[in-house]
């Protein structure tokens, strides 16, 4: 019988070997080419074959639970080891720092997919190996970030909106402009997201422009409008509003629907609203990196996750919106009618995806953001 | 030079002097070269590339990123960092000196180590955790305001404003200041104080003319350490500072991991911070040394 100490040693020596391999690969990545070097290059030419019965998944904390891992194992015999990240940026940095060779499945958000495709990190999906891709809602088959699901399979989606305390606000908000018309009553009772594209995008939308405007005049106008709201904003945070809203320190917060579902479960007095002038629609996806040590298991995982029953059960357990139409149809009515998760079509029609923009335009967004947060 | 002394006293030593030096310095030298000099040079190279993000070819082409620093919004950010760091240094000095003075000179000797340990104890927890603790203390319905209300006092709205940043940063950095001041005060020659008293100096006079000048190197070293660490802090401004809390450290973070991913500008900003801090340390070594013979 192997003792605990032996197991630990075995694990240590293996991870150390992996570390050495990665370091050497990393050093060779720095090797200078004729006219300079490439920043954060990930070697994609030599793929190392991993154990065929193991699948390393790199995902957000709320997408994979033990029940899902057990179900996959009983269907395929493959053991899933999942690691979690808390932001797309952390995920990419970890990937570039040498973890590329570990994971066969990664869960980037839509906008990160297009960036990873551009960097040449992702392998093009062989659709003949994926059953059930046609069940994905058309809208998510035509994402601006990966049209035709060439590189990614959407797993979850949501919107950006306002979460408010219905006990503190006599008149419920319906649009972004509510914040401006009620700004005197909201002084230091409001948080916006710590995300330049979402915040400026929302203000652009409230002015009647696109979430992804590239017109410098419109962006400037949005910045000026945002500056007016500043006395009402207590801070910019993407998720720290949850505790403060639950504690009653805040009246209203801008956030993702997925987080809204979470806090509303804890306090039904909190409500989520999608602004009528339009908002952003995001999706999280599953991809297979070119460096995946176990692409076969990765395809098995994608096919498994596309099964309507699997997608429906995991949606019920973990409360996120599935883009899988066949899975949606299997959901209980209470979940189907949950407007936070599945908003009405007329609001969805007005929603835009945060699209990739030119460097020079992004620079402009960033410049106004720095101005806003430093003045 | 004193370096000659060993070879003169032991003329039979078989190892030549240069080899000795090399052997002794090599481990640290290789370490520093690999992990400090080369990375800094790489950052410098990146700072010369406009608009570079991961996956781009590194192709240095000028100082454009450095000019960007002189735009008013960036100067504003740097100014705020300096303000937070300076304010924190002053607060730490004002609060730390009496504490260090008491522990070093007035407290019972057998308690001293325990008292110091108690002061350093908060450093054993993560700085992130300490910032979150301050959030729950300072927020509108938090611990502080609950206490104030129960005493019939008006509540304070501190969270997400500059005062919260000063509170959080001072709390984080005070132990460093106290430790360094303690080391300095402990060495204070009390005979000078007795002599001052003999010659008719009042206690305040003795304090300002004897104690403070003798501990000046400690004050300088402690202040510099707190200032430099404060300049690079972004957890406290980020979590406690609210809407106008952009600091240089956070701006650098945004350039590397934010929406724009302009690693070139981020590197330029990093280089400027590195240079400014190095300059401050060089000045301390040059001018602080005259008084620091005891340290």
List the helices and strands and how they pair.
The complex is a heterodimer of chains A (375) and B (295).
Chain A: H1 4-30, E1 37-38, E2 54-60, H2 66-76, E3 79-85, H3 88-96, E4 105-106, H4 110-118, H5 138-141, E5 152-165, H6 177-181, E6 190-192, H7 196-206, H8 216-229, E7 233-236, H9 241-247, E8 252-256, H10 257-266, E9 270-273, E10 281-287, H11 295-306, H12 308-318, H13 325-329, H14 333-336, H15 345-350, H16 359-374
Parallel strand pairs in A: 2-3, 2-4, 6-7, 6-8
Antiparallel strand pairs in A: 5-8, 5-9, 5-10
Helix pairs in contact in A: 7-8, 8-16
Chain B: H1 5-9, H2 17-47, E1 57-58, H3 64-68, H4 72-106, H5 112-120, H6 127-138, H7 143-150, H8 162-186, H9 190-198, H10 203-232, H11 235-240, H12 248-257, H13 263-288
Description:
The complex is a heterodimer of chains A (375) and B (295). Chain A has two domains: 48-157 and 282-336, D-Maltodextrin-Binding Protein, domain 2, CATH 3.40.190; 158-281 and 344-374, D-Maltodextrin-Binding Protein, domain 2 (3-Layer(aba) Sandwich), CATH 3.40.190. Chain A is 43% helix and 15% strand. Chain A has helices spanning 4-30, 66-76, 88-96, 110-118, 138-141, 177-181, 196-206, 216-229, 241-247, 257-266, 295-306, 308-318, 325-329, 333-336, 345-350, 359-374, and strands at residues 37-38, 54-60, 79-85, 105-106, 152-165, 190-192, 233-236, 252-256, 270-273, 281-287. Mean pLDDT of chain A is 86; it is low at 1-35. With 295 residues, chain B is mainly alpha-helical. Helix content of chain B is 72%, strand content 1%. Chain B contains 13 helices and one strand. In chain B, helix 6 (127-138) packs across helix 8 and helix 10 runs antiparallel to helix 13. The model of chain B is unreliable at 1-7 (pLDDT under 50). The chains are: A alpha/beta (375), B mainly alpha (295). Strand 1 of chain A pairs antiparallel with strand 1 of chain B, so a sheet runs across the interface.
């Amino acid at each position: 019988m192997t003792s605990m100490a032996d197991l630990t040693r075995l694990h240590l020596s293996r991870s150390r070997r992996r570390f050495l391999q990665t370091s050497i690969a990393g050093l060779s990545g720095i090797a200078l080419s004729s006219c300079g070097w490439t920043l954060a290059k990930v070697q994609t030419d030599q793929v190392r074959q991993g154990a065929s019965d193991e699948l390393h998944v790199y995902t957000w904390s709320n997408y994979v639970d033990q029940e899902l891992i057990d179900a996959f194992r009983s269907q395929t015999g493959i053991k899933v080891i999942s690691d979690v990240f808390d932001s797309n940026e952390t995920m990419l940095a970890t990937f570039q720092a040498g973890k590329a060779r570990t994971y066969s499945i990664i869960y980037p958000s839509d906008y990160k997919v297009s960036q990873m495709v551009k960097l040449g990190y992702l392998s093009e999906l062989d659709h003949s190996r994926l059953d059930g891709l046609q069940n994905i809602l058309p809208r998510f088959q035509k994402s601006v970030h990966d049209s035709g699901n060439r590189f990614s399979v959407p797993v979850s989606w949501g919107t950006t909106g306002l979460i408010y305390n219905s006990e503190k606000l006599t008149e419920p908000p319906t649009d972004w402009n509510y914040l401006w018309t009620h700004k005197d009553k909201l002084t230091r009772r409001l948080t916006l997201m710590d995300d330049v594209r979402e915040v400026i995008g929302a203000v652009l939308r409230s002015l009647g422009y696109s979430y992804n405007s590239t017109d410098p005049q419109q962006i400037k106008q949005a910045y000026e409008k945002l500056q007016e709201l500043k006395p009402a904003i207590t801070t910019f945070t993407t998720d720290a509003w949850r505790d403060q809203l639950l504690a009653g320190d805040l009246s209203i917060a801008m956030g993702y629907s997925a987080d809204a579902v979470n806090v509303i479960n804890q306090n039904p007095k909190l409500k989520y609203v999608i602004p009528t002038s339009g908002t952003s629609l995001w999706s999280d996806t599953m991809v297979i990196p070119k460096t995946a040590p176990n692409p076969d298991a990765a395809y098995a995982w994608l096919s498994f996750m596309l099964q309507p029953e699997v997608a429906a059960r995991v949606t019920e357990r973990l409360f996120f919106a599935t883009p899988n139409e066949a899975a949606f149809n299997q959901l209980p009515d209470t979940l189907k009618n949950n407007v936070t998760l599945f908003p009405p079509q007329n609001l969805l029609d007005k929603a835009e995806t945060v699209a990739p923009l030119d460097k020079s335009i992004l620079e402009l967004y960033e410049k106004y953001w720095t101005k806003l947060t430093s003045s | 030079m004193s370096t000659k002394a060993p070879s003169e006293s032991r003329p039979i030593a078989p190892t030549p002097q240069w080899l000795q030096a090399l052997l002794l310095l090599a481990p640290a030298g290789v370490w520093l070269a690999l992990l400090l000099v080369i990375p800094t040079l790489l950052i410098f190279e990146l700072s010369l590339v406009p608009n570079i993000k991961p996956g781009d070819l590194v192709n240095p082409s000028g100082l454009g990123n450095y000019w960007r620093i002189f735009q008013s919004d960036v100067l504003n950010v740097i100014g705020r960092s300096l303000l937070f760091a300076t304010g924190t240094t002053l607060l730490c000095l004002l609060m730390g000196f009496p504490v260090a003075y008491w522990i070093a000179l007035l407290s019972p000797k057998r308690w001293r180590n325990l008292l110091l340990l108690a002061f350093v104890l908060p450093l054993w927890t993560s700085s992130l955790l300490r910032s979150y603790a301050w959030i729950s203390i300072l927020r509108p319905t938090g611990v502080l305001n609950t206490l104030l209300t129960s005493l019939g006092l008006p509540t304070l709205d501190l969270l997400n404003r500059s005062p919260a940043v000063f509170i959080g940063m001072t709390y984080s950095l005070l132990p460093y200041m106290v430790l360094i001041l303690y080391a300095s005060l402990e060495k204070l020659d009390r005979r000078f104080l007795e002599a001052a008293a003999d010659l008719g100096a009042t206690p305040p006079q003795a304090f300002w003319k004897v104690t403070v000048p003798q501990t000046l190197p400690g004050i300088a070293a402690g202040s510099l350490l707190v200032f430099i660490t404060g300049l690079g802090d972004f957890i406290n401004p980020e979590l406690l500072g609210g809407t106008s809390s952009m600091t240089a450290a956070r701006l650098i973070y945004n350039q590397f991991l934010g929406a724009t991913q302009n690693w070139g500008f981020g590197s330029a900003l990093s280089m400027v911070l590195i240079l400014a801090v190095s300059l401050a340390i060089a000045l301390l070594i040059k001018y602080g040394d005259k008084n620091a013979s005891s340290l």
